[in-house]
Design a protein that fits this description.
This protein has no helices and 15 strands. The protein is mostly beta strands. InterPro entries: HEPACAM_domain (IPR052280), Ig-like_dom (IPR007110), Ig-like_dom_sf (IPR036179), Ig-like_fold (IPR013783), Ig_V-set (IPR013106).
Length: 178
């Protein structure tokens, strides 16, 4: 890695996960953020914001030289993990899905700043499925049809797959899926 600067070289590098972070509802989630710079700093400020689509960003917490100033509404939910700028969300709710914006300001001879966005998706674990048969007796003499209905109470990003004797069933003359 080669970095060339003309004049004052005071780049601030902010490293965040580049992919969407998946968390599980009810569990803690750690958003890992690292920063480094090559300037002398008298003050380091970290700010965390949260935005959902079609809404203004909300202030979650901030710090100056590691002294944290939380938004009182969220102070029990969000924690700054020093010495870097990582954020801990605990516990995670479905309403926490969205973009988290971290901004770092470093004051020395001047002020250098950088900000990054982290996308968070919240997954709800899939509950045990229940299967209902129609007719409920499950007995079909020779020519009748039977309908199997699979339902579950909770879960995000659910995919259904029917199996018979451990092998996948595919649509055909004997099976239709809806």
């Amino acid at each position: 890695f080669f970095h060339f600067c003309a004049g004052i070289c005071s780049a601030l590098k902010l490293t965040v996960p580049s992919h969407t972070i998946h968390g599980i509802e009810g569990q803690p989630l750690h958003l890992s953020v690292d920063y480094n710079f090559n300037a002398t700093a008298s003050e380091i400020q970290i700010i965390w914001l949260f935005e959902r689509s079609q809404s203004d960003p909300k202030y979650l917490l901030g710090s100056v030289n590691q002294r944290v100033v939380p938004d009182l509404e969220y102070q029990h939910k969000f924690t700054l993990i020093p010495p870097n700028a990582s954020l801990r969300i605990n516990p995670l709710h479905l309403s926490d899905e969205g973009n988290y914006i971290v901004k770092v300001n470093v004051r020395g001879n001047g002020t250098i700043a950088a900000s990054q966005k982290i996308q968070v998706a919240v997954d709800v674990p899939v509950t045990k499925p229940t299967v209902h048969t129609e007719p409920s007796s499950g007995v079909v003499e020779y020519v009748g049809n039977i309908t199997l209905k699979c339902t579950l109470e909770r879960g995000t990003r659910v995919a259904y797959q029917w199996m018979k004797n451990g092998k996948r069933l595919h649509a055909g003359p004997n099976y239709t899926f809806s």
